[in-house]
Amino acid sequence: MAEVFPKESIDALAIGAWILGTGGGGSPYLAQLNLKHLYAQGKRCRLIQPEDLADDDIVAVVSQMGAPLVAQERLVDPTYLARAVRLMEEYLGQRFAAIMAVEIGGGNAFSPFLAAALLDLPVVDADAMGRAFPEAQNTSFAIGNLKMYPLSLVDCRDNEAIVSKVPSWIWMERISRKITTEVGSIAATCKAPRTGAEVKEWGILHTVTKAIGIGEAVLKARRVHANPITSILDQEGGIQLFAGKVTDVDRITTGGFLRGSAQFAGLGESQGQRFVLEFQNEWLVALGNDEPLAMSPDLICVLDTDSGEAIGTETVRYGQRVTVVVLPSPDILRTTQGLENVGPRAFGYDFDYRSVFSQ
């Protein structure tokens, strides 16, 4: 049974989702304010557990698609997310029973809530990544080789598109990314609809609750003047990788992605270490003294050393004091097929996945 999502959980969700975003998914700040505004207008969201979905329920999977930096310049309007869902319903000729996020990371964790507040649909406590990733073939649904079409896309200039059929997840990524780039590198999308049975078998479950738990741990640590980063590591079984300051950032928005690298100088126990993070919307690989230290699909998270607040690839800047931690990824991402979709070679790196948790 769906339960009302409390206003008091909005801030915790934002903190936790930004951490799980591994630098991507877009900053949740504006979406967080948007949802609070909708609540102030009397709107409410409901959260439903995936186990409560009927096998034949049809679930909408939504996201803002594009480059995170652009999302900070073009404010997200919930009406476009809602319209992407309605456009898909018109195409399918049937109504959705619920709505879920394609990724729990960053601002996209709020995408189903913003649409649901307008559509009066329950939000499923699940996503398809357990973090954030840049491309369509990086989802657990793609790992399960589920049907990848149709897709609806809506932008702020009243452009609407349906990608009705493609031969593969990579083609879905290429075509939908091209449309997104043409309309300004940001658009609201409703991905291929999923049945309740597919969500339960291939979704990454209870990730909304997980994000809220991380956020609540950070907020509690701040209230009692404890170390919020320690609270994150304790909550998730993570490892601290590096501590230092940002010395250089090289990034460019191209092809609908934010790509680049950030360089850091070590402090304390990391003194003297050459440390680099490379990203494609999300932090993908950490290099120490030119050797890979951590890599996708493990969650590489850059945090403000004092507050524990996540720092995104679009907001990282010179002089920030940061702590880099690694959190374990969902099991499905580390399967053989999972690594083909989200391991380092999937992003063009010439080395195999090696987890920091098995060294």
Characterise the protein shown here.
The chain starts with a strand and ends in a 17-residue tail after the last helix. With 359 residues, it is α+β, with helices and mostly antiparallel strands. It folds into two domains: 205 residues, 3-Layer(aba) Sandwich (CV3147-like fold), CATH 3.40.1610; 130 residues, CV3147-like. It is globular and about 60 Å long. The model has no long low-confidence stretch (mean pLDDT 94). The strands form four sheets. The chain has a seven-stranded antiparallel beta sheet with strand order 16-15-14-13-12-18-17. Strands 3, 4, 7, 8, 9 and 10 form a six-stranded mixed beta sheet that branches. Helix 4 packs across helix 5. A hairpin with a 5-residue loop joins strand 7 and strand 8. The protein contains eleven helices and 18 strands.
The helix content, as a percent range, equals: 25-40%
Uncertain parts: none
Total separate domains? 2
Secondary-structure arrangement, i.e. CATH architecture of the largest domain:
3-Layer(aba) Sandwich
Order of helices and strands: EHHEEHHEHEEHEEHEEHEHHEEEEEEEH
Average pLDDT value? Answer: 94
Structural class: alpha+beta
Q: Superfamily at the CATH H level of the largest domain? A: CV3147-like domain
Looking at the structure, the CATH topology of the largest domain is CV3147-like fold
Distance between the termini: 42 Å
Highest-level CATH class of the largest domain: Alpha Beta
Rg, rounded, reads: 19 Å
| Shape verdict | globular
| Total count of strands | 18
How are the strands of the biggest sheet laid out side by side?
16-15-14-13-12-18-17
Largest sheet: 7 strands, antiparallel
Total of DSSP H or I helical runs spanning 4+ residues: 11
Provide the β-strand percentage band: 25-35%
